[in-house]
């Protein structure tokens, strides 16, 4: 039975959205195609009507998640204070505690290096975010904006990843606060 194109496209987007969330929560190897399809309310059977493989889904869902993150950053480019707020929100307990809803960089950097199919999408996302930060963050000196954006984003991603990894909530909060303070005051 053939489904209308709109319904097929909606299902495809639903799969991408749930896959991106689950991959951020559990890693690329931590979630199965069956779990993704179950999260979408679909059976495992139609998966291959949408994707050639799990690796193809991983790559496309990484781009899908990237688009979501870039939209949030685009909204922050309206003012210097909005850019600072973007950093505050990124390096926060709320972001730390919700990897499925957060940035794919902090959630999947360690996994992406082991997934050749994902690396181009991951690289595209990273370069895009660095470019936007370099162009729009209120740098004190503009002559090293790209280098400063790389340093800042590396610190932000690292802070969230480390804050998620430790078993001491006070220390986790301290990590976030240190990086937050370094870039927003």
UniProtKB/TrEMBL annotation:
Keyword DNA-binding among record annotations: yes
SUPFAM superfamilies associated with the record: Homeodomain-like, Tetracyclin repressor-like, C-terminal domain
Pfam entry (one): TetR_N
All residue ranges annotated as the HTH tetR-type domain in the record: 9-69
Molecular-function GO terms, alphabetical: DNA binding
Keywords: DNA-binding, Repressor, Transcription, Transcription regulation
Stored InterPro entries: DNA-bd_HTH_TetR-type_CS (IPR023772), Homeodomain-like_sf (IPR009057), HTH_TetR (IPR001647), Tet_transcr_reg_TetR-rel_C_sf (IPR036271)
Regions recorded as binding DNA: 32-51
Name of the featured protein: Transcriptional regulator, TetR family
Organism the protein comes from: Janthinobacterium lividum
Lineage, broadest ranks: Bacteria, Pseudomonadati, Pseudomonadota, Betaproteobacteria, Burkholderiales
């Amino acid at each position: 039975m053939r489904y209308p194109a709109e319904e097929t496209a909606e299902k495809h987007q639903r799969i991408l959205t749930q896959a991106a969330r689950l991959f951020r929560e559990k890693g690329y190897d931590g979630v199965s195609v069956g779990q993704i399809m179950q999260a979408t309310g679909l059976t495992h059977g139609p998966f291959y009507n949408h994707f050639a493989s799990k690796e193809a889904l991983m790559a496309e869902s990484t781009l899908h998640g990237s688009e979501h993150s870039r939209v949030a950053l685009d909204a922050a480019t309206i003012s210097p204070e909005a850019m600072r707020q973007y950093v505050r929100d990124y390096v926060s307990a709320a972001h730390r505690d919700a990897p499925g809803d957060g940035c794919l960089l902090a959630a999947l950097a360690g996994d992406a290096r082991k997934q050749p199919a994902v690396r181009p999408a991951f690289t595209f996302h990273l370069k895009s975010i660095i470019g936007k930060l370099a162009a729009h963050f209120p740098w004190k000196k503009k002559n090293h904006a790209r280098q400063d954006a790389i340093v800042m984003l590396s610190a932000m991603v690292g802070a969230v990843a480390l804050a998620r990894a430790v078993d001491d909530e006070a220390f986790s909060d301290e990590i976030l606060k240190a990086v937050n303070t370094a870039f927003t005051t």
